[in-house]
């Protein structure tokens, strides 16, 4: 039971403030006031349920207790014991089950609900659209099953709200209220309701739509006014309803056609007629009307206007309805091109009748260029099939019209190249500018002819590019056979500098096409160097080079280059030399040995980056066993803790190899170095200390175990290794890059010096380009 505890509290407080203060006193106080209560107040309290106390003040709502609750509690405690017991009995709260049972519906009520459900009305929507206030205005009607007519929904937004709240909606005096729910409507109606709710109610974008008033003030929101952009969605949804119509002042249409192409009306709308020496556009039938420059409506055909035509068609509609009689659309012979432009726009939407002489014919222009002493001469011809036009005067005598837009592009190009808007003209444009800037544009417009003098000056044939192995490097050679040999180097330099041409001493213009410029740029990306007229690059670039130019028909690879590129991409097929190792290698270890042997064959260093435990030591021992010649030596650097592990591995797998560990005191290490063993093993710090002694020896192979120890290029060990002269170097590391990309640079400066750019340039490279380089 909800009690007006605040009024009780006020009664208590008022009574205390006025009279009978001495009749009853309570020792407790609240809010600074002693509570003095008169027993006659009790008569109205004897049947209140104190256990159901509830207060709607903020304190009680937030904390479950308030000063009103305290007043009630003090009041109850101040009552005589007999009255407290009486109220306690009255306020005894029954069990929840005893309260729940009486709420169960009776059999009669359940039967009534079943009966009502059986006769629940089946509902459907009817739709209508009209043009109102220059906008599309949609209305809905509610059709109740067995009702003789549909009823206009006077507030669409509220109606949809009631549906989704499943509340009652008053239909009419005859039908009365009905309870609404979405599943009472047929599927087409549900689809429309869900769309309107999603896009026009839930979004609440009032700047894009409006539920507007009807003629009567009672029709508050009976129109849904929408922008044109919703048309493609709403038309199919409305037309799927059982009843739909588009209503105008003159007709009613059951369908709307959304035209993506010009529609064909039954009667002619526009035609062009010739009178004396001019042409006139005449509106011969209903034009329709345009809504907000975006939608052209004629009968029940709706056409969304292209943005570039909106202003024009809106002006045309204004002319039709306001100025057609007083200001006819008349064009002279000289304005025939502009007339045809207007006709072309109109024909995008409705057919327009033209006389034969205004039928548009395409043409092919031919630009014939010749060279005079200081100028370039142009003779232009437009070919209309068998008819040829040699002057502007000839255009006026054509029995048809020509494409005005195409003609405008040609005239614009003539002016750009320094010519006049004539069929015969001269230009003082520089020969280089003509060849590079203007000639390509003329070629896009039509056919181009150059006389012999101009043809001799223009060299457009792409260079043939040869790539071959040249003394440990890859050489790239451009074949510019069309110019003298003494200028080839300068031409390559211009191409290397990404210039789009080179002009010879004789005035010839060598034009570098996009493909040649791309080749030059790709070579630079792959770290090729241009010096003394030659382009060279590291042999390790063979794979990247072959991949970059594999589809370029102007690039030729030598046979040796093709073999090397194939081996780099298929190391598993490389034939290795026989070897004697006292163990059986696993398949992946054999592939590792093949890969290392292939690199050795082409004098490449490399990094073996297998994970820990996969046998990098065994693969390296097998490589040396297979490829180390009797007069060759190898130096292995490893952490001090692994030196004798290496020696033991050699003893186990290739016991016939002479192996020495250079470790201990300086004197001992030098003695071991001077033994010139086939295999010498030492630590990184020892190598740094004994560098001058190792340099006196001649080593063919350098093996760097746990190569991440030299990831810092600034350390003395890394610097010493860069100074050390050795033919081939291999690095072994499970983690060649631990933290930063620069770490791989330090290792490659020792393994393959010259492969990567300087450290400063390397730091600017993207990870993708670094991956391509290595």
Summary, kept brief:
The chain has 774 residues and is α/β, with parallel strands linked by helices. The protein is built from 29 helices and 40 strands.
SSE arrangement:
Layout: H1 5-18, E1 29-30, E2 33-34, H2 58-63, H3 67-78, H4 81-90, H5 96-100, H6 107-118, E3 123-132, E4 135-144, E5 151-152, H7 156-165, E6 168-172, E7 176-179, H8 187-202, E8 210-212, E9 223-226, H9 231-239, E10 243-247, E11 252-253, E12 257-258, E13 270-275, E14 278-283, E15 289-291, E16 295-298, E17 301-304, H10 310-323, E18 329-332, H11 336-347, E19 352-353, E20 360-361, E21 364-371, E22 376-384, E23 387-389, H12 392-396, E24 401-402, H13 404-416, E25 424-427, H14 431-445, E26 447-450, H15 452-457, E27 458-459, E28 464-470, E29 473-479, H16 488-496, E30 501-503, E31 509-511, H17 514-525, E32 529-531, E33 534-538, H18 542-548, E34 555-557, H19 559-569, H20 587-601, E35 606-608, H21 616-627, E36 634-638, H22 643-653, E37 659-662, H23 666-674, E38 679-683, H24 684-689, H25 691-696, E39 701-705, H26 716-723, E40 728-732, H27 742-751, H28 759-762, H29 767-773
Parallel strand pairs: 3-10, 12-17, 13-19, 20-24, 21-26, 27-31, 28-34, 35-40, 36-38, 36-39, 37-38, 39-40
Antiparallel strand pairs: 1-2, 3-4, 4-5, 4-9, 6-7, 8-9, 10-11, 13-14, 14-18, 15-16, 16-17, 21-22, 22-23, 22-25, 28-29, 29-33, 30-31, 32-33
């Amino acid at each position: 039971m909800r009690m007006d505890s605040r009024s009780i509290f006020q009664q208590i407080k008022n009574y205390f403030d006025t009279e009978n203060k001495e009749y009853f006193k309570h020792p407790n106080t609240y809010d600074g006031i002693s509570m003095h209560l008169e027993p006659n107040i009790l008569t109205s309290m004897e049947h209140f349920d104190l256990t159901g106390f509830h207060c709607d003040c903020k304190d009680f709502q937030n904390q479950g207790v308030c000063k009103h609750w305290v007043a009630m509690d003090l009041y109850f405690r101040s009552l005589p014991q007999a009255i407290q017991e009486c109220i306690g009995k009255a306020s005894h709260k029954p069990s929840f089950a005893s309260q729940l049972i009486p709420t169960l519906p009776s059999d009669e009520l359940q039967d009534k609900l079943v009966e009502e459900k059986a006769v629940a009305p089946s509902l459907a929507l009817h739709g209508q659209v009209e043009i109102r206030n220059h906008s599309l205005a949609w209305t809905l009607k509610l059709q109740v099953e067995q009702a003789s007519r549909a009823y206009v929904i006077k507030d669409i937004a509220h109606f949809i709200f009631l549906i989704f709240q499943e509340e009652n909606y008053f239909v009419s005096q005859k039908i009365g209220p009905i309870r609404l729910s979405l599943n009472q409507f047929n599927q087409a109606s549900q689809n429309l309701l869900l769309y309107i709710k999603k896009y026009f109610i839930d979004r609440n974008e009032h700047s894009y739509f409006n539920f507007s008033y009807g003629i009567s003030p009672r029709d508050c929101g009976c129109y849904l006014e929408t922008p044109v952009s919703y048309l493609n969605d709403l038309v199919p949804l409305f037309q799927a309803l059982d009843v739909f119509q588009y209503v105008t002042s003159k007709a009613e249409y059951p369908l709307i056609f959304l035209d993506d192409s010009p529609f064909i009306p039954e009667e002619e709308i526009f035609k062009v007629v010739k009178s004396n020496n001019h042409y006139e556009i005449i509106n011969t039938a209903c034009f329709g009307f345009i809504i907000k420059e975006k939608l052209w409506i004629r009968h029940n055909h709706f056409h969304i206007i292209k943005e570039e035509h909106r202003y024009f068609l809106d002006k045309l509609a204004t002319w039709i309805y306001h100025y057609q009689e007083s200001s006819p659309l008349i064009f002279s012979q000289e304005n025939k091109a502009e007339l045809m432009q207007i006709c072309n726009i109109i024909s995008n939407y409705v057919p327009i009748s033209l006389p034969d002489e205004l039928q548009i014919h395409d043409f092919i222009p031919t630009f014939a260029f010749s060279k005079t002493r200081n100028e370039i001469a142009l003779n232009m011809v437009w070919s209309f099939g068998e008819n040829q036009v040699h002057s502007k005067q000839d255009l006026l005598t054509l029995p048809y019209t020509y494409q005005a837009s195409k003609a405008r592009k040609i005239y614009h190009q003539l002016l750009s190249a320094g010519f006049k808007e004539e069929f015969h003209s001269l230009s003082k444009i520089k020969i280089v500018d003509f060849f590079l800037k203007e000639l390509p544009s003329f070629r896009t417009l039509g056919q181009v002819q150059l006389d012999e003098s101009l043809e001799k000056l223009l060299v457009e044939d792409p260079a043939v590019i040869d790539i071959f192995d040249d003394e440990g490097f890859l050489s790239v050679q451009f074949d510019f056979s069309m110019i003298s040999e003494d200028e080839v180097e300068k031409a390559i330099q211009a191409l290397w500098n990404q210039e789009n041409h080179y002009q010879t001493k004789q005035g010839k213009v060598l034009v570098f096409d996009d493909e040649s410029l791309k080749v030059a740029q790709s070579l630079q990306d792959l770290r090729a160097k241009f010096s003394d007229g030659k382009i060279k690059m590291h042999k390790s670039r063979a794979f990247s080079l072959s991949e970059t130019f594999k589809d370029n028909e102007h690039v030729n690879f030598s046979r040796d280059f093709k073999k090397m590129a194939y081996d780099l991409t298929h190391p598993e097929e490389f034939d290795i030399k026989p070897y004697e190792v006292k163990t059986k290698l696993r398949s992946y270890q054999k592939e590792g040995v093949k890969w290392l042997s292939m690199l050795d064959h082409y004098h490449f260093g490399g990094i073996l980056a297998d994970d820990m435990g996969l046998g990098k030591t065994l693969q390296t021992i097998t490589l040396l066993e297979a490829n180390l010649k009797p007069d060759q030596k190898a130096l292995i650097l490893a952490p001090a803790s692994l030196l004798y592990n290496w020696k033991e591995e050699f003893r186990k797998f290739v016991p016939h190899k002479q192996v020495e560990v250079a470790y201990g005191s300086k004197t001992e290490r030098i003695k071991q170095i001077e033994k010139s063993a086939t295999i010498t093993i030492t630590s990184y710090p020892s190598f740094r200390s004994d560098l001058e002694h190792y340099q006196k020896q001649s080593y063919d192979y350098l093996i760097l175990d746990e190569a991440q120890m030299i990831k810092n290029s600034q350390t003395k060990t890394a610097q010493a290794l860069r100074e050390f002269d050795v033919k081939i170097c291999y690095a072994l590391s499970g983690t060649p890059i631990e933290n930063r990309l620069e770490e791989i640079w330090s290792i490659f400066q020792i393994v393959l010096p010259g492969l990567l750019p300087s450290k400063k340039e390397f730091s600017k490279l993207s990870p993708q380009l670094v991956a391509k380089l290595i």
